[in-house]
Design brief:
This protein is an alpha/beta fold. Helix content is 37%, strand content 15%.
Length: 252
Amino acid sequence: MRLDGRVAVITGAGSGIGAASALAMAKEGARVVVVDLNEASAKATVEQIEKAGGQALAVRADVTRATDNQMIVEKAVAAWGRLDVFFANAGVPQSPENVEDVDEALFDRIMAVNVKGVWLGAKYALPVMKKQRRGVFLITASTAAIRPRAPRKPGGADNGVDVEPGENDPSVTPPGADEKSVTPVATETPMLPAFMGKRVVDDEGRARYVATVPLGRLNQPEDLARTAVFLASDDAAMITGTCVEVDGGRCI
């Protein structure tokens, strides 16, 4: 198993990409801290992991709060003695709107979750990883940061967030932590309707988005989960500071 004995924190793991990644990492041997603002959803993911024979812990947390991020890391270390993977996956979707039409409160919420939440996760996870001299800090970004399309969403800026990967100090062998990002195209998650600017995903909306993907389909959460497992494993030991596009060729 590629993640045997490792400890992973995954935010936004009550549904969608986060839940699929929690299940996939647990299947590969990781002990998973399942973090979500919705405690019931976090517990549901944990139940699935435990039914499959894995180990997991549900934690309700708001990633925009420093104290919550500190608590997440402390719970992981208290439960299993280490922290090997922090997957900053929690995010807020934005419907396709022109910049001048975006509500300020929504913009603030997007930046708080998608940018500040990632920074706070790094603030508390990286010191543990540097002390261990190993770890992976993984981020869910978006193709919107690489190839934005009209209407341009200010939320696209948040998806390009980056975190300095460790110290790059030659006196530290290996470096304290690797930073890697995955950039999905539109994915079949509960966020998809909001992303499309609809209450529910209809045939017209789906066809319009699928037409932008050369491989002819949208992402499934499992597509991202498999990539997250790879990036968290020793198979990706020489990958750092990199954004991996899981987009069916959309950014070509």
